[in-house]
Specification:
CATH architecture of the domain at 150-260: Roll
Largest sheet: 5 strands, antiparallel
Order of helices and strands: HHEEHHHHEHHEEHEEHHHH
Oligomer: single chain
Distance between the termini: 47 Å
CATH topology of the domain at 150-260: Chitinase A, domain 3
CATH class of the domain at 150-260: Alpha Beta
Number of helices: 13
Radius of gyration: 31 Å
Length: 334
Amino acid sequence: MHSIRLRPLHFLVLASLIATLSHAQEPASSNPAAGSSAKQASSDANQVVLKVGDVQVTKEEFESRIHDIEPGHGEEGTPDKDRQRLGDDYASVLMLSQQAVAKHLDSSPEVARKLDVARMQVLSDAEFATLMQQAQPTFAEVSQYYNAHASDYDEVQIRRLFIWKERENSKGAPLSSQAARAKAEQIRQAYASGTNVQKLSSDLTKSQAGMLDANPLSFTRGELSPPIEKASLSLKEGEWSEVEDTPARLLLIQLVKRDRQQLGQVSPRIEKQLQDEKMQALLNDLKKNAGIWLDEKYFGTAVAPVPDAQRRASNPPSELRKSATKGDSNHEEQ
């Protein structure tokens, strides 16, 4: 067995129960041709493809359950060798589960506890999916948010010019700020006079005196450091500004173009943000109304991180946490 291990056993058992209890009836079609096609499809779906003892598994059951365990596997188009492996693995797990029930292992405290936890997680996922649908923002809400925060989506194209004051393995004295500015002005004048920017960039890099962006770089608000962002948003297109002067380097930027991302470009990002906010509000209300209480002597009083903060944490979240909060070089410019 390669893919289906004992870990998904609880899922298979639950899926078997659900499949047994919830077969949906297809409505009869008034179109004879459509009815014939539907019957053929139903016949194919109900084709028994696997047996373990007295238990029969249809094509539809097998493909749907394998898809839940290994998305993208088991359906039409899966290579025969892969489908055969999946079928053998599935049959083995089903056989072992039958043996476990025959030996009443499902009644043992440990297995019963794991089944209870599995059931709780499946139900939690189902309710979470329902709440996520409920938290889905409308187009009007997305548009309203965009209009209220339009400046957040300002975008600039800038060209950076670095002049190194200290050079690698250089034994000479570092450049002074005055000398660095004179070098920068020399390059700016050459650029303004029409010298090919690609050549300027290449020559400057080869000389190890600095670096010039041959092509402008695009940044949205919040991606640049505060001093550079402030300067880029205050410049007129084509203008240069000195934004950094340190013992190691002098940095100037040129505003090439200022623009704003349109609603269609940022709608997915806004939708996700609004959905996360709505979802968090729904969860907070549910927690408040559910009467949740935690013993501070046992759990402590530290406030649990919100989902986004949890996702940014260096340590991966526990399985329980996932279920509870899934809402969800040298001279180089960093």
